Amino acid sequence: MGKSSSCSPSYSEMTQSNLIDHIQIRGEVSADYSDVYEVNKSAFEQDNEARLVEKLRQNHNFDPNLSYVAIYENGTQRLLVGYLLFFPIKIQLYSKNDNKKLDLSVNECLALAPISVLPSYQNRGIGSKLISYALDNIKRSYLMSYHCIIVLGHENYYPRFGFKPAISQYHIHPPFSIENENCFLVLELIPDKLKETMSHNGNVYGVVEYPKEFDEVS
After folding, report:
1. SS3 content of the chain, % helix, strand, coil (to 5)
2. Distance between CA atoms of 19 and 38, rounded to whole angstroms?
3. pLDDT computed for residue 217 by the predictor
4. What's the topology of domain 18-214?
5. Which candidate, 183, 157, 158, places its Cα nearest to that of 168?
6. Is residue 94 a contact partner of residue 205, using CB atoms and an 8 Å limit?
7. CB atoms < 10 A from the CB of 82, how many?
8. In the prediction, which pLDDT does 17 show?
9. pTM listed for this prediction
10. Cis before residue 191, ω within 30 degrees of 0?
11. Domain residue spans in the chain?
12. pLDDT in tens, 167-181
């Protein structure tokens, strides 16, 4: 990108509406990798998420069409300020009666993780623009073969994009304990497809299985 965040305008110099007009969303390319690392590291104030993304790129299930960047452009200024990644996952099904693992799973799923924005650009609508663009792109392309997207995030933020509580409404659980189950959410890309799959298989519940890279980076 070639420009540091110190070159970016301050809050007093640019309103949110003006800033968002200068944000372009596009697919990530290999030339973005070093800037994406810095955005993730800065956004999370640690390098766990940055290292996770680098590891996921080495996974054979990584699809470059599922990662997106937000670019701030204004005249000669050009800076990568945001990043979003979807990654294929599966939902393993279990019997509610005895918690037995079944020979059934939902494989056409994605996890949204991570999404990041440079600290000085946060709360300016960039994350929402990233998500909206990415979802529209998925729904317009071959990526529509995916049935749903899982995210662990703010219960009052993601519902604006159509996400719903995964545990209470779909009986889909994370593979770890969480304090607030309403923060574990799912978006059906094909209306009612996931709900039909869960109900069709009877008295079952699902547990999300993330790639091993999620456990390796902590």
Report:
1. 40, 30, 30
2. 21
3. 80
4. Aminopeptidase (3.40.630)
5. 183
6. yes
7. 25
8. 59
9. 0.88
10. no
11. 18-214
12. 999 999 999 999 999
